[in-house]
Queue: 3 jobs
Job 1
Amino acid sequence: MAQVTDLHVTQNIPLPAPALLLNEIARSPEQAEFMAQSREIIRNILNGTDPRFLLIVGPCSIHDTKAGIEYAQKLAKLAEEVKDKVYIVMRVYFEKPRTTVGWKGLIMDPKLDGSDNIPEGLRQARTFLRQVIDCGLPTATELLDPITPQYIADLISWSAIGARTTESQTHRQMASGLSMPLGFKNTTTGDLIAAVNAIKAAGKPQTFLGVSEQGVASAVTTSGNPDCHIILRGGDKGPNYGADDVATAIEYLTGNGASDAIMIDASHANCSKDDKKMPAVYQEIVRQRAAGNTKIIGAMLESHLVAGNQSFPQPLEDLTYGQSITDKCIDWATTETLVRETADKL
Ligand SMILES: O=C[C@H](O)[C@H](O)COP(=O)(O)O
Ligand SMILES: C=C(OP(=O)(O)O)C(=O)O
């Protein structure tokens, strides 16, 4: 008989059922309470009842959990300092969408050597999230693989659907069932329409193919996620953080019946992926908000201990500690200055 299956599959390793991992690396009642509270605060910021500025800040990706925790400890202190004006949520990004190919994040390849030990990656991700929460910080991540949320979503305060997947029905369906507030990026071309359609689709009930906590393939039905908003991240045609772009976005969102709460990413195409340009972009976002545009509910910054990024792959022993192996980040000193400035201005 002709071979008609697995022509291109070279390996298929069963994963532990989500319930097993949730039991092995369990959330404590205190952690569950913290997650519920942090999500409620973010919902209130989105609907305008909490006047604080929501700042999603942290490394482009977590590749070294030791440096990640050092970062979290510093950020927790800063968050405490500005908590009356700015609600800080740490970027804890474990899944990287690639334009073509590249390292796909700690969950996919936790050993950074191409061995793609996903069960180990899921364990490290849960363990790390719990450590960040225990520092007193809410958590933010991009959810990319539709099975991943079953393993980590209970420890996530806010999540993003990235520019490359906002148009994907699979991701909109997944978002409709997620328990946390969530932002959809505009597409890499800069179009807002896909994000607006995504907010509408994710807000509706959906039925789709998923995996249960027991690891069983399932037909999942959701009630819709009402806490979705847009993230302006610039695109191929240029940045979209300026006052005119924001006004256009508000008009477009309201005209199309989507939430007009806007988060703006100071990284990615809004700063041409240049960490040296990121502070000025961020300061302009804060300037607009301080000038009275409360539709701008928050911003995103890619920040790490050390500025810039380093090429990867390279021998692990040659990696610079605390520096990104994906997109360029601003360094810790710049982060502190920008965050303190935000609290002063708002
Ligand atoms: O935020 C990270 C990157 O911008 C995203 O993963 C795409 O990266 P790439 O274009 O280097 O693949
Ligand atoms: C990949 C990211 O962003 P975007 O989807 O905007 O490229 C990210 O924030 O890590």
Job 2
Amino acid sequence: MISWLYQTFFQPRKLLSPEEMSATVDKVNAWIKEKPIFVASKTYCPYCQATLKTLDELKADAYVVQLNTIDDGSDIQDALYEITGQRTVPNIFIGGKHIGGNSDLQELKASGKLDALLSDL
Ligand SMILES: N[C@@H](CCC(=O)N[C@@H](CS)C(=O)NCC(=O)O)C(=O)O
């Protein structure tokens, strides 16, 4: 139990070498470029759930990476910070353009600009 608690909450993360970090940034940039809609998410995050619900309602097919379910999720989050200056999730890209987080997506929806962005895909 003590060992599980330590490994889950306190085990220090292995930091990436500059080369590994650069490879992760390249991987994330490829998703941004190649996926019409890319969302970095976490399964327990209510803002992420709101974003995915909105995209689903608009029948917008997103490539979703759930960072908390994969081994390199923290590295991808670091790469996203390097690329966008944003560390929080959801981190949303549409048509290669950085949208921001859920509040940014909801503002775009409310202003009618989200439909235009999606129809350009
Ligand atoms: N205003 C942001 C709030 C996003 C936010 O606070 N997300 C939390 C998760 S629910 C987060 O990223 N926390 C830092 C982390 O998980 O590393 C939005 O609308 O997207």
Job 3
Amino acid sequence: MSLYQRACRVIPGGVDSPVRAFGSVGGDPVFIARASGPYLYDTDGREYVDAVGSWGPALLGHAHPEVVRAVQEAAARGLSFGAPTEAEVELAEAVRARVPEAAKVRFVSTGTEACMTAIRLARGATGRDLIVKFAGCYHGHSDGLLAAAGSGVATQGLPGSAGVTAATAGQTIVVPYNDEAALEAVFDAYPDQIAAVITEPAPANMGVVPPAVGFNAFLRAITARHGALLIFDEVLTGFRVHRSGWWGLERSAVETPPLVETPPLVELVETTAPAPKASTGSPNAAPDLFTFGKVVGGGMPLAAIGGRADVMDLLAPLGPVYQAGTLSGNPLATAAGIATLRLADINVYAAVDAVSSDLQAAVNEALFEVGVPHLVQSAGSLFTVFFGDFDRPITDYAAAQRQDSAAFARFFHAMLDAGVALPPSGYEAWFLSAAHDDAALNRIVEALPGAARAALGAA
Ligand SMILES: Cc1ncc(COP(=O)(O)O)c(C=O)c1O
Ligand SMILES: NCC(=O)CCC(=O)O
């Protein structure tokens, strides 16, 4: 009996998260035994160059020795105390140093919890019930956020999830991404009822679909005008696309010349907290709340909500919005997060950007060479290869759903056979790391021509 068959007897679908199943590409998922730098090793000892990066956290590559040491040292001091620790304070300070607008930070264990809490906080702060999300954006699997969710829900072609009550679903309004008029219409239709707009400021869960220029600033302006909060879900982009996340990347594009890193932001902290209640709507106006996950936990279960001090202070025990967690701010997870952020300097981001743009160029070239219709879309170092005939950029979920999933599946399996692990869905971003050196990149590049022929159906 294979390990997968064994797994299926005791675990639904054999996986603990649906995105790990090979549902849309076919075949059995690969079981991983260990990972190091840019490489994964399966239970048969086979090596793969990894472009999944644990779905985002592995910015430094797998099992970075300093991160592992930090976790081992923390483990030796005790696994969990259920009491505050200095490491939580240090990690919150590190987050705020990179994102000063996250004036206060609360740690939880998953991105799902972070987004769920941000929504509750927005409702508590405004006294309103309705939430607006964008079709194709994924904000974790809490009931209210599963409508037209991207990621695994998109991969499975589901409109949402069974088990969500009509009452809950009815409090989430779904709007097409990048559609200013649709959002205007929703605010007009529900005056004084919308608590928050939640967005991935650079969506990567319907494949990478970057925001139109000015779209995030538009979101800031319209929410401020209507007294709703704006939530940037940077669970995926935070500390991955830039030292200060997508928010930092957009701001640095506005404030500094291209290719110049923003200076350390610590000195801005005191002037920006608490942030003003109504934003100016300028191109670099911050959201009220952020959610972070993935990189901030360095591969351990950790995520965060951060934002305006006056809003964050509504959380219990200071305020009436309840949020809790036995393992929140866990000492092993905070140790991994601190070590990861300490190591993630501008050289790390420059390395990830460079390997990402080299790989995007190589993928384009290999697919053009063979005549495979496709479109590569990127947001920072994140990118997706959409298979299919696209005569214009993909700007929303409806367009992303027109991709040729069968061509992707053929490409995916040819890459896997050649020892390259891609996310098993065309609705996901490829994740690279600072450990992807020339050797790792070359192995991906060498696999491309064969996979391109396979995508065409000519393998
Ligand atoms: C943008 C975004 N938000 C939220 C989540 C949920 O995070 P988690 O899987 O840690 O619950 C994810 C990914 O899973 C994500 O990509
Ligand atoms: N981009 C999609 C995810 O990161 C989801 C991971 C998971 O649910 O396992």
